[in-house]
Write a structure and sequence with these properties.
This protein has one helix at residues 9-33, and strands at 48-52, 55-64, 71-79, 85-91, 97-101, 105-109, 116-118, 128-135, 139-148, 172-175. It is mainly beta. Strands 1, 2, 3, 4, 5, 6, 7, 8, 9 and 10 form a 10-stranded mixed sheet that branches. A hairpin with a 3-residue loop joins strand 8 (128-135) and strand 9 (139-148).
């Protein structure tokens, strides 16, 4: 007679089930130590977001061909107050862009051929600029804004022609309420 252990289908089944339970426990335990991405705020777009008092800035970016060239502002300005807000946007060396955001409304920059244009962008595409966002209620605020090239999704966005001294650039306004 031999003393070797006999393996039966029942023993094999128990061994396979035990290995499966152990493997599931070990692999499932990895998720305990992994952070859940929705627990952390992040920019899910190319532009940047900020809130200055009653003004929400959403997905703001600059589209420009080259350094020191004009740049088109894209994004959205949202007014959550019951009064109109005058917003001034500017970067180093550029003329300020004045935009009026209606009460409880939005201004979309860069939509439907309407654009707000910085006269000069002090950075090349792929870099960032310091953009000043000023309102009467919050004063001057600084926002680090990306400069993007006019390719792909942004290829149809171009800076508006240089405004004459009697006209001031603005975005298209739509009131939501």
């Amino acid at each position: 007679m031999t003393t070797a252990a006999q393996t039966t289908p029942r023993h094999r089944l128990r061994a396979v089930l035990g290995a499966a339970v152990l493997g599931t426990t070990l692999l499932g335990g990895c998720a305990v130590f992994s952070p859940v991405q929705t627990d952390y705020a992040y920019q899910a777009a190319d532009g940047v977001n900020a809130t200055f008092g009653d003004l929400d800035v959403r997905n703001l970016a600059v589209i420009a061909d080259a350094k020191d060239a004009p740049g088109a502002l894209i994004g959205q300005l949202v007014n959550t107050s019951t009064e109109d807000i005058e917003v001034s946007l500017s970067s180093e060396g550029s003329e300020p862009v004045e935009v009026k955001v209606p009460r409880q409304g939005t201004v979309s920059l860069g939509e439907d051929g309407e654009s707000a244009t910085l006269s000069t962008v002090p950075a090349a595409p792929g870099e960032v600029i310091t953009l000043s966002v000023a309102t009467s209620g919050t004063g001057q605020n600084v926002l680090t804004t990306p400069v993007l090239p006019p390719v792909g999704y942004y290829e149809d966005i171009t800076p508006a022609p240089a405004p004459s001294s009697s006209a001031s650039p603005s975005g298209s306004a739509s009131t939501s309420g």
